[in-house]
Every structure is written in structure tokens, then in C-alpha cells.
Specification:
By secondary structure, the chain is α/β, with parallel strands linked by helices. It is built from 15 helices and 17 strands. It is an enzyme of class 4 (lyase).
């Protein structure tokens, strides 16, 4: 098959770059569920940002921690509006510049500045360790925040003798419309998506927070049937801390994240031989002898149950437990009929009179 992700459903929790990520996944055949977990609110007119900028001009920083590309660009754009862009750029040009990742590096260079060091892990902790080893006693550190305060990082620098100026350029806020996020939580809890992508640690925290009393159900799904795809190790941290195995590329790029998912999801497929056909189960579809067959949730649930024990007869009662609540035995018969029609291989599912159904493997 040319479309590596055909038959898989993937949730996207990003906001700002959701369309880009969705397009990359759809180009490979995936069905995408867009559900921003957070949105970025710029603080161009914020009093705290203006005061932090003036503090940097009055007490020129010896060190600049550039944490995000959007944050650095937003800071300089806000300074431009206040008529302070050139003085700020001149001041920052004298500092030892640490960029936490490639996006921050790009923003630094676009501003005519240059970075002096970047961590391999893109971790704030690694940045702090580097600065403490280098020595910050008596120095001023300008820390461009990424969404929320980082008290543990700031406190560690203060403990090492630095004066820290926190620069709040934007903050995270709940999505304008929370309905898609709650719909995605329903899908994850019901194991009706195959993967969920995260491009920031706050987004992962926000999804779990929005899950409310279903948080543990969502975590169990992410620990098992639903792949958690994270753009990098920093993004993955809230999930790893809760025992969720994650897939993350070595370099924090959207393209690399998509390649990681392309490699990982097909490994989770189940293949069986039945009635002379080869069936591969992929998310919401089955591949029958190399041809993709889209299936509705109920027929797909029945197929998964039968494929888990090829040749074994499953009663209507057993199959009923795989269907949504409120279904009856007639719903099982309907799901089997739709499954046979959808596979276009009617002999694959055999009716065993008075006992139930099985995959015909003989």
C-alpha cells in the first residue's frame, strides 16, 4: 500500500500548527481528528512584558535564555510597537545567548543575533545545568518564558547567584471551543483513535486535565491501544511521568514526528489468514489481500474480537460486549452482516449454528 497510514485515525492536539501537521498525516492516508488542547494568547500589550523589557534595558542581561521561536519573535514585535526594538536588540546582542531548540535559534538569527549554545535535549533543565556549570553568580539572566512560569528553572539560577528577569511573551489558554477536545477524549477513552499527537507539554497536561474523572481511563488507553506521539522528549515528560510509553523523534520536528508515527503504527497491526484471504487490521479499516476496506466501528469491533482468536467460536453474548452500550443481540447480527459486506469476502466470517461466529481458518 502506498498510503502508510491509511485506515488509521489520529488525533491532533496542536493549535497553531494543527493544519500543517494534519496535512502531513493526511498526505499519508490517515484520518485526522482536530482537537486543539490549548491556544496561545499573545501578550503584546501586557504590562508585565513591557516592564520585563524595560528591566532588560535598565539592567542589561549577561545571559539570554531563548526558549521558543514564537516567543522571541513576539517579544521583538511588541518592542517594535513600543519603539524599543533597536535598544532591546542592541542590549541582547551583548548577552551570552542560549537557544533551547531550533525554532528559538531561527528566531534569534532572524533578529540579527547569534546563539552561543543549545542543548541536545531541548530541555530547560539541561540549559540550567549548563549555565550553572559556566557560572552565573552576580549575573543577570533574561528568561523568555514559554507559556507558563518555570519556577524550578528560575529558582535554580537564583540559588546559583543569578538575578533572573522573567519575560512573559504569551500564555496558554483553553481552546475557544472545547467541544472537539472533549470529543477526542471520548474517542481515546473508547479506543476509537489509533494515536494522539502532542507538540507541547502543556497540551498533554491540558488533555488530561480536561478528561476530569476519566483521566485514568484515558491514561490506560494511552498505555495500551492508543499511541502517544510526541514531537520531543520535553513534550513527552508529563505522559512519561504518568507511565505512558511515548514515541518521539530524536529531533523535535513535525516531519520527524510524522515519520515516527509512520514507523510505529503499522507495527501494531494484526494479520490473520482466513478462508484463503490475508486480513490485516488497521485502526478503522481492514486490508484484505492488499485492498483497504473501510469499516464502521461496530463491524470493526466484531472483526477485532474474532481476529484475536482465529478459528475460535465467539457467542453472540461475547461479541455483544465489544459493541457500544445499549446494543442487543440483533445488533451483533447486523454488525456481522455489515462486516461481511464491508470485507467483500463473505466466507471469512462463518456462522456456527446455535453457537455464534468465528473466522474460517480451515
Amino acid at each position: 500500500m502506498r498510503d502508510e497510514l491509511a485506515g488509521f485515525t489520529i488525533g491532533v492536539t496542536a493549535d497553531r500548527r494543527r493544519d500543517e501537521l494534519a496535512a502531513l498525516l493526511q498526505r499519508r492516508g490517515a484520518r485526522v481528528v482536530l482537537a486543539p488542547a490549548l491556544r496561545i494568547v499573545p501578550l503584546a500589550d501586557d504590562t508585565d512584558l513591557r516592564e520585563a523589557t524595560r528591566a532588560c534595558l535598565e539592567h542589561p542581561p549577561d545571559v539570554l535564555m531563548a526558549n521558543t521561536g514564537i516567543g522571541m519573535r513576539g517579544w521583538l514585535e511588541a518592542a517594535e510597537g513600543w519603539g524599543l526594538a533597536e535598544p532591546l536588540r542592541t542590549t541582547l546582542a551583548r548577552a551570552y545567548v542560549v537557544s533551547r531548540g531550533p525554532k528559538a535559534t531561527g528566531a534569534i538569527r532572524a533578529a540579527g543575533l547569534r546563539e552561543h549554545w543549545s542543548p541536545d535535549s531541548e530541555s530547560c533543565d539541561e540549559v540550567v545545568e549548563h549555565l550553572v556549570r559556566r557560572g552565573v553568580a552576580g549575573q543577570v539572566v533574561a528568561m523568555q518564558l514559554h507559556g507558563e512560569r518555570q519556577p524550578e528553572c528560575a529558582d535554580a539560577l537564583v540559588a546559583a547567584g543569578a538575578t533572573v528577569i522573567e519575560v512573559p511573551v504569551y500564555r496558554w489558554a483553553p481552546p475557544a471551543d472545547p467541544a472537539p477536545l472533549h470529543r477526542l477524549i471520548d474517542l481515546v477513552a473508547g479506543r476509537l483513535v489509533d494515536a494522539v499527537t502532542f507538540t507541547s507539554a502543556p497540551a498533554a497536561e491540558a488533555l488530561l486535565r480536561a478528561a476530569g474523572d476519566r483521566t485514568e481511563t484515558v491514561l490506560e488507553a494511552l498505555r495500551g491501544d492508543v499511541l502517544a506521539g510526541c514531537v520531543g522528549t520535553v513534550t513527552a515528560e508529563p505522559l512519561v511521568r504518568r507511565g505512558v510509553p511515548v514515541s518521539a523523534p530524536s529531533r523535535a520536528r513535525l516531519g520527524a514526528l510524522v515519520r515516527t508515527i509512520v514507523e510505529e503504527l503499522p507495527r501494531r497491526t494484526v494479520s490473520v489468514k482466513a478462508a484463503g484471504h490475508v486480513l490485516t487490521l488497521r485502526g478503522h479499516a481492514a486490508v484484505v489481500d492488499g485492498e483497504l476496506r473501510q469499516l464502521a466501528p461496530a463491524p470493526m469491533a466484531v472483526l477485532r474480537a474474532l481476529a484475536a482468536s482465529p478459528g475460535k467460536v465467539l457467542s453472540r453474548t461475547a461479541l455483544l460486549r465489544t459493541l457500544p452500550r445499549g446494543a442487543d443481540e440483533h445488533a451483533v447480527e447486523m454488525a456481522v452482516a455489515r462486516l461481511r459486506a464491508g470485507l467483500t469476502a463473505p466466507r471469512v466470517v462463518q456462522t456456527v449454528v446455535k453457537r455464534g461466529y468465528r473466522l474460517r481458518v480451515d
